[in-house]
Amino acid sequence: MLEMFEYDFMQRAFVAGIIIAVLASISGTFVVLRRYSLIGETLAHSALLGVAVGIVAEFNPLWSAVLFALFAAWLIEYLRSAFSLYSDAVLAILLSGSLALAVIIVSLGGAFNNSLISYLFGSILAVSSEDILVISVFGAVSLFLLLLFSKEFYFIAYDEEVAKTSGVKVDILNFLLVSVVAIIIALSIRVVGSLLISALMIIPTVAALRFRVGFVKTVLISLAIALVSVFVGMTLSFHFSLPSGATIVLCVLFVFILSLAINKR
Known about the structure:
The chain is mainly α. About 80% of the residues lie in helices and about 0% in strands. It contains 12 helices and no strands. Helix 3 runs antiparallel to helix 4, helix 10 crosses helix 11 (about 215-240) and helix 10 (about 195-210) packs parallel to helix 12.
């Protein structure tokens, strides 16, 4: 098993995978508690649109993915608050619109190649040293913000109206949370893929909630599930030449099924 760490690409993939597992599981807890699970899928498709633009324009797709995901996150929160639209309706509109634009841009630019496929489904071979640097820097900032405002995020998820009357700056914190989630998703699609990152963010938290052990322990269980799934998924991906993102998600699903069996009520 240890022989896979002799390869530089596997070392980079595991570093990126561990960072992503930590970020996705912690942010996913707040997303699930707010019943906002579809936002991961929506922002992933928006990030894919950024990737398509980056590939066609011939600059780093990771940067364009972050920018497009951030813009989509701000647009979602603005439409939800300014026009009193239902959250799921806003997410569905942007999800389908982003995917449609991505397909058109790629078709017109003739850029539907292996590079884009790696962003769709994830690829451990695609993670570069520059990607590790970007993921580490933005990941550290995202984790810092999640931990710094964790009490406020939990309060808002529990009851947004009570949080407002208690003096919590709900609107600003909502924009901050969706921004952090957008950055995490954009960083993650290199390893997990835009079609699968939402599963890594949501399923570990849903599995952890089955244990009914309180907020902090739920976060820790979700983190453990994500880390184990990433490690096992990447190991299987290396030895059996499987897509890394799909293998990781299958591992997460397996743990989720176990959580249902263990906690039947």
